[in-house]
Design a protein that fits this description.
Layout (H helix, E strand, L loop, with lengths): L10 H11 L16 E3 L2 E3 L3 E3 L15 H13 L3 E8 L18 H19 L6 E7 L14 E2 L4 H7 L6 E2 L2 H20 L4 E4 L6 H5 L13 H4 L1 H14 L4 E9 L21 H12 L4 E6 L6 H4 L13 H18 L4 E4 L9 H10 L5 E4 L1 H5 L3 H8 L13 H7 L11 H11 L2
Parallel strand pairs: 3-4, 3-12, 4-5, 5-8, 6-7, 8-9, 9-10, 10-11, 11-12
Antiparallel strand pairs: 1-2
Helix pairs in contact: 2-3, 5-8
The structure holds flavin mononucleotide (FMN).
Flavin mononucleotide binds next to strand 4, helix 13 and helix 15.
């Protein structure tokens, strides 16, 4: 179905459009569902809303959180989500996605301690001493999308003709060797230990959006022990999780933000039907999740696509770099139904759902519908967290979101990020990010 911009006056309008499209989404008006506390490896979230990892590209040259980073997390924490999933933090300098991406190392551990303290104290100032959001840090190596200086310096799992065709930088790409991958597993461990020392509750071994460990999952044509078979392609994430677990001990959450569908043609895409990349095949993602479950992983944040190749799959939008080949409600349904399938299969896993921001105030109805139908355990917000961090308070206290404060999925936050600028919501947090947008984009 054709792309259409958001234009729904009320929930009934939206439901009618779903019917017209033949899209199945669950909606509910029971906002009490968001009050449900969630137990993750013994830690309890104060409610069922999570803020997703959202990079602000506002760290220092050395990777430390800077003034705008602290401001973002203060705003997030004062909004009141039960779980704050801190953005992509690089484990090595060469794996940074931009020169201002956060990067954790021994020299800046004190700065990360301050970030953690800021999150907890901001939440407690707002909601009292007993309120404590669960905090997870996403650890990453950006792989083919690494830009530690200003341009791409790709480090890849294998050549991928689909993404190569978009970026045309395969000649400068370094195919990471098995020895380097083994070393990188240990670098994830070092970073995880630092995250623990900084006071956070857990780490995410990131395996999404076609960054390095996500790309490895579909490295069907890679030779050697980190490619080819299912066992080879999942070796990096499994080894890393095993090593991290051994190092950090039992009282620390190990999670993963993981793609369950890449939307890229086989044999270059993960979770796709061999004949048709538009159709998901969850056989391998399910097998991997089952292996993670056996290792004690109880928290997953599931997602799809990549912002560099098929952003409409990754984050349904009104405006972006191109007009998407589908209606945004179809994209939302792909995310909800795919994630719901996993939650049904792994009912003891805490799964964070993705893809709500596009629906503005009705995202609360979709979130409640998802909770009511056990399609996820936590409702995760990405772009909406930039625009409207107080959405949690509004849902829990007022029972509804305010349309005037909602993210309008205009894509401006991504536009700034792509040109290495510091990002946030240009429209609803305009005083800070309006001038930045004008400086970088015009
Ligand atoms: C500016 C920007 C930064 C992002 N940073 C991250 C990140 O650091 N890690 C990650 O896993 N996803 C990141 N994402 C993806 C979001 O977490 C989320 O999956 C996506 O926006 C869809 O959710 P939404 O519809 O609620 O926005 C980012 C997205 C945007 C637009």
């Amino acid at each position: 179905m054709e792309h259409k911009e958001f234009n729904y006056r009320n929930l009934e309008d939206l439901k009618k459009e779903c019917e017209r499209l033949g899209v199945r989404l669950n909606f509910s008006t029971n906002m009490k569902l968001f009050e449900r506390k969630v137990n993750i490896n013994g830690l309890v979230t104060p409610n069922s809303i999570a803020f997703h990892p959202m990079e602000g590209c506002d760290g220092t040259k050395e990777g430390s959180p800077a003034e705008l980073t602290m401001r973002r997390y203060q705003r997030f924490a004062k909004g009141g989500p039960g779980l704050i999933w801190v953005e992509a933090v690089a484990v090595v300098r060469e794996g940074r996605a931009n020169p201002k991406q956060l990067w954790i190392h021994k020299e800046n551990i004190e700065e990360f301690k301050k970030l953690h303290k800021t999150i907890i104290s901001s939440a407690q100032e707002e909601f009292g001493q007993n309120f404590r959001p669960v905090t997870i840090v996403q650890l990453t190596h950006s792989g083919r999308f690494s830009k530690p200086n200003n341009d791409f310096e790709p480090i890849i799992a294998h050549q991928d003709p689909y993404i190569n065709a978009r970026y045309k930088n395969e000649n400068i790409a370094h195919i990471i060797t098995d020895e380097e991958l083994e070393q990188l597993e240990d670098q994830f461990v070092e970073a995880a230990l630092l995250v623990k020392e900084a006071g956070f509750d857990g780490v995410d071994i990131k395996a999404c959006h076609r960054y390095l460990s996500s790309e490895l999952l579909s490295a069907f044509d890679r030779q050697g022990k980190y490619g080819g078979s299912f066992e080879g392609r999942t070796r990096f994430i499994i080894n890393t999780i095993d090593k991290v677990k051994k190092a950090v001990g039992e009282d620390f959450i190990i999670a993963s933000r993981m793609n369950i569908y890449d939307g890229i043609q086989y044999p270059y895409g993960w979770g796709v039907d061999k004949d048709n990349p538009l159709i998901a095949d969850f056989t391998e993602p399910k097998k991997l999740i089952s292996m993670l479950y056996d290792r004690g992983v109880r928290l997953l944040n599931l997602t799809m696509g990549t912002p560099y190749y098929n952003p409409h799959v990754n984050r349904p939008y009104d405006k972006g770099g191109y007009v998407p080949p589908e209606h945004p409600l179809e994209g939302i349904s792909r995310l909800m139904n795919g994630i719901g399938t996993m939650q049904k299969e792994f009912s003891n896993m805490v799964i964070v759902g993705t893809g709500f921001s596009y629906l503005r105030e009705f995202s609360a109805n979709l979130g409640a519908g998802v909770l009511e139908n056990s399609q996820a355990t936590l409702i995760g917000y990405g772009r909406a967290a930039f625009a409207y961090p107080d959405l949690v308070k509004d849902i829990l206290i007022k029972g509804q979101m305010d349309r005037r404060k909602c993210c309008i999925t205009c894509g401006k936050c991504s536009e700034i990020m792509r040109v290495n600028g510091t990002t946030g919501c240009v429209i609803k947090d305009a005083k800070i990010y309006g001038p930045i947008y004008r400086e970088y984009i015009g």
